[in-house]
């Protein structure tokens, strides 16, 4: 087997693995900050980023009760950061919704890079070993934040 044939075979197998790795995920309910070959954010991440930039905090708050688990996760991390920065006030109902999400066994799709696609329970995204999952996105989107 020549080097060229070997290289083509590797690319083919990588592509097959890439496609089959995505079979079990829902791209409409996906959280990912650097997905696929281009390192693009998922639709939900783009949606929340746009709402943040446009200061549509009430719209983000309404995502706490969304049927979309990716939106619910993104709402929690964005709202908690906004609250820490004293940009918004969270009320009892917000804390109740956040608590439900942080303890939820509902599934959310995750992408990371070009080959890591999987589903996990929402509560897992709030556990210590996953704390860094959204840290770069949070740091970037709040680095120059002003109330």
3D structure, described in words:
This is DUF4476 domain-containing protein. Keywords: Signal. It comes from Carboxylicivirga mesophila. Residues 1-21 form the signal peptide. By secondary structure, this protein is mainly alpha-helical. The chain has one domain. It has helices spanning 3-21, 43-53, 57-62, 69-84, 92-102, 135-142, and strands at 30-31, 107-112, 116-121. Strands 1-2-3 form a three-stranded mixed beta sheet. Helix 2 packs parallel to helix 4. It starts with a helix and ends in a 5-residue tail after the last helix.
Overall SS class: mainly alpha
- Rg, alpha carbons: 18 Å
Q: Tally of extended strands?
A: 3
Largest sheet: 3 strands, mixed
**Strand fraction:** 5-15%
Q: Span between N and C termini?
A: 62 Å
- How many H/I helices? 6
Helix content: 40-55%
Strand order of the largest sheet: 1-2-3
Topology as a string of helices (H) and strands (E): HEHHHHEEH
Q: Give the mean pLDDT.
A: 85
Poorly predicted runs: 5-21
Count of separate structural domains: 1
Signal peptide: 1-21
Keywords: Signal
Protein name: DUF4476 domain-containing protein
Which helices and strands occur, and which strands form pairs?
Elements: H1 3-21, E1 30-31, H2 43-53, H3 57-62, H4 69-84, H5 92-102, E2 107-112, E3 116-121, H6 135-142
Parallel strand pairs: 1-2
Antiparallel strand pairs: 2-3
Helix pairs in contact: 2-4
């Amino acid at each position: 087997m020549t080097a060229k044939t070997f290289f083509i075979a590797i690319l083919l197998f990588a592509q097959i693995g890439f496609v089959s790795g995505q079979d079990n995920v829902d791209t409409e309910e996906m959280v990912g900050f650097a997905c696929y070959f281009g390192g693009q954010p998922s639709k939900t991440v783009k949606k929340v980023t746009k709402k943040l930039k446009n200061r549509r905090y009430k719209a983000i708050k309404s995502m706490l009760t969304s049927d979309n688990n990716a939106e619910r996760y993104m709402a929690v991390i964005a709202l908690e950061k906004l609250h820490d920065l004293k940009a918004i006030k969270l009320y009892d109902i917000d804390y109740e919704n956040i608590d439900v999400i942080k303890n939820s066994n509902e599934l959310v799709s995750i992408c990371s890079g070009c080959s890591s696609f999987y589903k996990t329970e929402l509560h897992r995204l709030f556990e210590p070993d996953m704390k860094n999952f959204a840290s770069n996105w949070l740091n970037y989107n709040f680095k120059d934040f002003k109330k």
